[in-house]
Structures are given as C-alpha cells and as structure tokens.
Specification:
The structure holds two protein chains of two kinds. By secondary structure, chain A is an alpha+beta fold. Chain A is 15% helix and 27% strand. In chain B, a hairpin with a 2-residue loop joins β23 and β24. Chain B is α+β, with helices and mostly antiparallel strands. The model of chain B has no long low-confidence stretch (mean pLDDT 94). Chain B is built from 24 helices and 52 strands. In chain B, strands 9, 10, 13, 14, 15, 16 and 30 form a seven-stranded mixed β-sheet that branches. In chain B, strands 43-44-45-42-36-46 form a six-stranded mixed β-sheet. Classes of the chains: A alpha+beta, B alpha+beta.
Chain lengths: 124, 984
Amino acid sequence: MAYLINCPHCGPRTTDEFYIKGDASKQRPAAIGDGTMDAWHDYVHIRDNVRGRMAEHWHHTGGCRQWLVVERDTVSHEIYAVTPANTWKATSRKGSSTPARKTPARKTPARKTPARKTGGRAKT
Amino acid sequence: MSSFRFDTGGLIDRSSVIDFSFDGKMLQGHGGDTLASALLANGQLLMARSFKYHRPRSVITAGAAEPNALMEIGEGGRLEPNTRATMQELYDGLVAKSQNRWPTLDRDFGAINSIASSLFVAGFYYKTFMWPKKFWEAIYEPIIRRAAGLGHLSHEDDPDRYEKAYAHCDVLVVGSGPTGLMAALSAARSGASVILADEHAACGGSLLREREEIAGQPGHEWAAETLAELAAMKNVRLMARTTVIGAYDQSVFGALERVQKHVAVPDHDVPVEKLWRIMARSCVMATGAEERPIVFGGNDRPGVMTASAMRAYANQYAVAAGRSACVFTASDSGYRTARDMKAHGVHVEAIIDARSDAPAIETGGVPVITGAVVTNVDGGKHGMKGIEIDRGSGHETIPCQSLAMSGGWSPVVHLACHQGARPSWDEDEYCFMPPQDNPAIIPAGSANAIWSLGKCLADGAARGEQAARLAGFKTTKTPVPKARDDTSHTSAPVWWVKQSTGKQFVDYQNDVTAKDLPLAAREGYDHIELAKRYTTSGMATDQGKLGNVNAIGILADATGKDMHEIGTTTFRPFYTPVSFGALGGQHVGEHFAPVRMSPLHNWAADLGAEFVETGLWYRSSWFPREGDDWLAAMTREVLNTRAHVGICDVSTLGKIDIKGSDATEFINRLYSNAFAKLPVGKARYGLMLREDGFVGDDGTTSRLSDTHYFMTTTTGHAAETMRDIEFAHQALWPELDVQYASVTDQWAQMAIAGPKARDVLGAIVDTNLSNEAFGFLAAKQVKVLGSVPAMLFRISFSGELAYELAVPAGYGEAVANAIMHAGEPYGIGPYGLEALSAMRVEKGFVTHNEINGRVTAGDVGMGRMLSKKKDYIGRMMSERDGLNDPEREQLVGVKPLNPANRFRAGSHLVNPGDKASLKTDQGYVSSVAYSPMLDSWIGLAMLKHGRERHGERIMLWDGLRDVHMEAEVCDPVFFDPAQEKAHG
C-alpha cells in the first residue's frame, strides 16, 4: 500500500496516521420512504474485492480528523486523488452521470517484463 | 590450521590490538578487522557446523551474503544468535560462540548425520515422519529442532535501547563503492540533498578490497578523499553501518543502522540499532554484485571461498585461508585473485578455468589449466590438503591449502524487486538484470552488470545526475577520474560439475545439494517457487544470496528449460535479517502503549487508590483501607454510598461538545430514540445503533442551549463513537450545520452519589438543587466554589440520588478535594470502578459487557427506544427479521441459590438436567458482581426467552473452571426497581 497520503488539509502524511473504513462507492439509502431492505443489504454488507482503481473512505485520525476519499489502485498502489469526503460526494452526485461505484475496476496491465536482451540497461 | 595473517599490508590498524574470545579461547585481532578476518588471522579456519549434516564450515564470503560463519555474539540479554562473522566488527571484549554443535565445534556429535546423508534428501521430513500422526508434535519435531538448529536465545531481557527514525532526502545512494561514491558526488554537486548508505563500517566498497588505481592513486585513498569531500558538503549525509533493507511504494526505503553493535557496553543514551524510514525522491541502487560459487564436490570445505572473498581477505585484512591456493574459475575474477594472492606471497598452484576457450589474461606467472573442472576437495575441519580436478582425461590431484572459486557475478537486484517486479535473465552477461519498472530506483554500476572500474565510475556519475534531475535539480557533467577500463570476458557459466565425487552444495546454509533439485523436479516440484520450498534452497536466513542463481541453473538443466523460463523466486524485504529489537523500537515495556490518566488520577492516588487498566486508561478501581482486599474495599464503598454519599471519578467517559443550528437534527439521527424535543436544561439517555442494526454505544446527551449539546459516550468506545459521528456528518450529511469536538480530556468529571449528595454539592454549587428546581435528568451550566465554570447533570449510574459534575480538567483536583471537604460531615468516601460496577449490576444497567456487538436493543430490554418516526443510524437494518426473532436471548438477572457461591462472567446457561452442549445452550452470563445490598453474588445474563422465565431455575455452567451451580432467573434490576432513590 502507498505509504504517503497527500491529505488535502495537512499535506503528505504517512498511512500510519489514517484509519481505513473501506469502499466509498456505496451511498447510504434512505431508511424511510424509498429505501428497500435489498438496497440496505447491499450498502451494509456487499463489497467488491476490487482489482485496480477504487475509492475508499479514509479518516485522518492522527491529523485533521477529516474523512477523506482516497482513490487508489489496489494493484499498482498509485494514488489518483485524495478528496474531502463531503466535497467528493457532492461532485460524484452532480458530476458524471455514472457515480464512482459504477465505474468498472480499471484493468491494470500486468507488470511489463523487460525485453530479455536489453534489460533496459544503458550500454556504456 | 592453515589460515594466517600477512606480515604487512591490509587496511587494518596493526597498532591497535583487540582482545576477543571464540568458544572460550582468548584471541587477538586488530582495528579494522571483522570477526571473520580476525579468526582467520588466528588460524581459526573452522567457524561453524552446517545445519543438517553438521559439516565443518568456514567463511565462503567476506560480506552480507555469508551463509556459513554464523555465530552467537555477546552474553546474557545482549546475546544475538546467527550473526554473520563477516559483518561483525571486532571490538575489545567481544564474546563469540559457534552454533549448532555438541559438545564442541571440533568434536561435534551431530556430524554422524553426514554418514547417513543419503537418507536426508529433499522432502525427507515429509516422507519419513508422517506416521503415526501424533508423533510429529510430541517426538519428531522436538528431536529435529534440536539437531538442526541455529543459535540460541538467552531468554533474558535485552538491556539495550532501540529506536525508529525518519529521514528525508532528494537522492538516496545505496552502496559506497566506486559507483555509489560517484553517484553521491554528482547528485550532491547539483544541490540535491543526498544520503549515502553503506552496510559496512568502512565506506568504499570494492575499493577497499581490490588493488585498483583511480586517477593515479590507490583506490582506497581515492575513496577516502571522495568521502572526505562528501562529508564536508552540507547537503550530504553519510550513513555507514546502515543496510537499506527494503524499498517500498513512493520511494520510501527502510534502513537498519547498527549504531552500537561494535562496542562491548553500549552507551545507554544512544540506541544500539536504529530502524530508519527514508523518504527519498529518487534512489541510485549502487549495490554491487555478488560472486557466485561453483557447485562441485567439497565446495563447502573450510579453505574454499569465492575468488573475490579471498582477495578481500588478503587486500583489506591481510589474511589468507592457506599458504598455497588454487583457483577454479569461469570468469576473469579468478585471474585477479591469482595475481593478488601471488603479490601477497601466497603460492598459487594453478588456475583451473572451466572455459576451454578462456581468453588470454595476465596470470602473474601462474599456470592455467583450461577446460578443466574441480571434482572434489580433500579436506575437513583442520583445513584443505588439495583438490581433485578433471581435465577430460581422468582425475588428478593438486595439493593446496585454499581454493578460490568464481562462477560469475550476479547483480544485487533486491531493492529494484521489492515492489514485485522480477529480474530478467541476460544472455550476454549471464546474469539476472534488475528490473527497470520503477523510474525512481536507478540501478548503477555492477548492480546493472557494468563490470569495469572505469565504466562504473562513469555510470555512477551519470546515474547520480539522472537521480538529481528526477528530484528536480539541474545538473552539470561531473568529471570522471581515470581508471582501468578493460573489457570484461564472461562465458557460459558452469552451474554444476556433474562428475564431482564429493558432496556438492547449492545452498550452504540449508545444506541443499545439487542432487536435491533434479529430485524435486522428478517428483513434480519443478516450478522454482515449489522447488525452493521442497528442497529449502534459498529459505535460510541468507535467503539464497549465493546459491539461488546456481539453483535456477541446475533446475533449468534438469527440466530442459532456459534460465528465463525458470525465473527467480520472489524478492521480499528485508535484504538481510533485522532484529525484533529494531522492529519494536522504543515501544517496549512501559512505552509499549501510551498511558492515559484522568485529571483526577493524582487525587485518587493520594487517597490510596488501586488502579486498573481499561484500554489505555488507568482508572481508580478501589480504595483499600488497612489491608482491605478489593472485595472488602468495594463492599465498604457501596454501603457507604448507598447509606451516605460517595464520590467517583468518571472523567474517562467520552465527552463530545456539539454545536450548530442543525445540532438537534444531527443528534436525532445519531440516536435511535427521540431527541428532537429534548428541552434545554435536560439530559437524556440515548442508544446508538450501528448501521447493521445492532447496538453500538450508549450514553447521555444534555441540551445546554438551543444549539449546544454535551454528549457522553462509554469509556471504551469513545474514540470509535467520535469517528462515527465525524463520518455521519462529513460523509453522510455534510449539508447539516453542525460542529463537534472531542472534549474528553478537557473536563474532569465526577459522580456524587448517595442520599446526602444534594447536601454535599449544595455547599459548593451556586444553584438551587431542590427536586423542583433541578429534578431528575436536569442539566445546567453552573459555577462551583464561586467562580469555576462547570456543568452539572442529575444523572445516576448507581441508582442513588446522584449528580455528575464536570469542571475544566485543571480544576478537577481542587474541586474534588473541596467536595471531599464539604462531604466530611456527611461521611463522604471515594468509590472506585469496582463499586461503580457492583452498583450498576444491582441496578441492571448495561455496559459493553452486555452490548457486545451481538445484541439488539430488544435483547437488552430497550426495544421501545427504537423510534419509528425518524431516520437514524441503524434504523432500517434493526428491522430485519433475525434481529426481532422471539428466540433471541434476552437480558435477565441470575442469582445463585447459595448466595455465597461465586460464579464468573462467561459461564453458560443450561436448563437443569441437561448436559451442557451447543445444542442445549440457553445463553451466557455477561456480568457478575458481589452485591453488598443483597449479600449475594449476582449476575446479568442473556437467556433465550429470558423475560418470560423470571423465577425459573437455571444451571450456571463454567466448563473452563469446572464450576457449576444452580441459580434463579430474575429481573435484571435487583435493587430499588421503582427508582425511588434516584428520583429522591
């Protein structure tokens, strides 16, 4: 896992300072009105084991104590974005028509094996 | 023994004499020696016994990859097993002991294994010790563990300090050989901040071990000058004795610095080891290359070592394993060894070159036998007598006391592979090349298969500039000093001399022989990862630094695949072993976890409190008088509180201050019960669910104004509840106008409970405490002692007329003392957590013993607190059928028929006459207390259909302690069920 998280409030901080809750793509259904038990079952219990890009709720417990959405790659460990949870939700709601959870996990290409002959080494 | 010290030469300080001991023998060495070189200088060629066959062993290398010369260093709590003698600096008073031998290194009983060695092939344990099954743990494993062992632990506390530290730099250079020095120099000249780390005590890498010239001066002198130049630069940090042990995401590196592993008695103000996290922008991996042994008969005999190790011992330490030597080589390295040893006066009998097309190389007059191989070594624990060679026309022998071997070189690629990338086989250089996946880790010099000194210097300079540019610096071309620039000749490596007659080792440390690998392949374990585990090749503490490539070569040969198809096993941190001490750092003993102390801690301590750990808190548990035990003290405290008045520290409760125009709405969504209409000046008990519908936490929340609330949580869940509240606002309902802050540590809070509580508090609080003015569940901001701002709540966890008073933490002690003073005429006494718990069990109040994450509001009799009129956390899932099943266990009280019979929480409930089993299980006891009011042990329990079963008999079954008793099921409220006292 990535070691440094670029907290939008505090700057780059070590992962030790954070608590990870998990998948941020699910949205809490209403409990009264149109919320169904199926929707709630999905929200509370069902989680994809994502290979590739995913968005997660992280809490900067040892820093600003803000909930963040960390978008990261579970394979390459690349971090794409770190956004405060309140604004991330807002953009995904009104932003694209497909919220983050609908985006299929990005296929990460297998690690490139360097060509056998060159090994990528500079010839001196 | 044949090993000895030259009269002159080496980079050791002959004027400093260092006393040390090996297996009780007093020996001497010099400053600059390693333990290994000092042992060789003393003629102590025999250093160890091998893992499985107990073969006599000496050093094979002069560095970090050493598989043989592992020793116990130090005594008592400082004893460290499995230390590589090649890496251990010599110091005055060093105590070293050999390992894995009995009774002595010289006469080792275990060597009998060697005779029966045909039994101990790969997979031997799996095939042999299978039956009967129960024999494994009882008989086989203990015997095998004793026979095949590494060093011992002393089982004493380590008296030394360890530390963790952080460092930041633009460019990290790993390795201070010619490449690393040039890389550090060129990067530093660009202005980049540079850390240069080297695992050895002395920086300079191969320049200390080889006879080389740079810019017309000896290599080690050039290295010293360059190091001095680097040391003078403000932006350079030199870290000797520091092994970079792992490369992690985002150019974060782990490093182990051995700060005081070279002194007998470390300075206690300084750690002995430091575990570093180095945050770098880029890294030059100038880790060098490891010379490969050749797999031939007797290649483990004392006196046999890699060609570069033999040169290192001669050039740096002025020692040799024997007065005469032979060289067995498949690369040019062997020739350099022949020349260097001859220059030191060692008689070099012959160079045996496996290549029939060996290039003509300067030998210094040593005869060369091309197209020949070594098939066996005549030698044992007292040293070598000679070698047996085969030049295609039968075996012949050459007498000699030592043998240098060189099967070619393997770049040290570990750091480039730690994030999962694999090295690739290079057909031209006959080695695995470092992967280039991570642009921030730049392999340089021989770590990238550049073999000549001149080219390494140039490559180092170029890579250092590249790394600096990557870190955002402008670079200029660094002039490269002149040095040897010959072309390296390598040819197809010889993995295994199959016509060998003696035992041929691939993995020295785990005693894996060449025959084990084809056997593994024949038995189906032909994948390199499987073959590794089946044969244990590469699984020892050296992780196969020497043997792995040979193992891959032999497996490729056996399976008819090429090297690329076989590939390597996975490279994982750490590069070399790291002590648990370093990993634990300063987090040992009292520093293992932080200690939280209430603002009233000293107040309680002054009154003689005994403390108990609850989470990180130390809570006052009981206040003994004249040798009371906890039960007597608790009983006295309860009786006094119920009859007169008591004071208890409840500061550890979680406290959250909540404000905002939407604070009411927010709190209403957090609690399952209604809060929207809580009047100002009132407190209310609230129940919080988790989103899955189970009870999460409880507490009271008071409304101090229209937009200001004060919430309390349980002690244990305070942090979690705070985090959940932050989540609810920030992630779920950011549109609400609400602010919140944890103020747990800002307030000292005390409970004043008992019939006289009103009288006591009245003396110090500036408000009317009458039932009419400040009734049950009233809450108010008040002043105490005339001026101290405080919050007063009429809430009761004891069932008594009770108040909780919160004052700013700094006033806590003074206010508590004032209450004690005011309460003196009324007989006030402090009570602790034990009394608090006993009183709450008497009252049937739940804690996390009951709301343990598996119970619903209905289970604990609070089903009516689930509002049907609003959305709140957990609302929907609490309506699931399973959570409302009438078969669920329900909260009840239990009272043993004999009140003196103590039982324990965790006991199970079984119907009388039933045999205890999962099937007959009726529930469990969650809390137990001795009730001074009932003069009986009582408990709270979760029981199937519990609420309908008051008055029934039940068995309390404690299988763990074998304590079983009959009890009566009753209402969970044992005392004052009408709540008359609390409302009084």
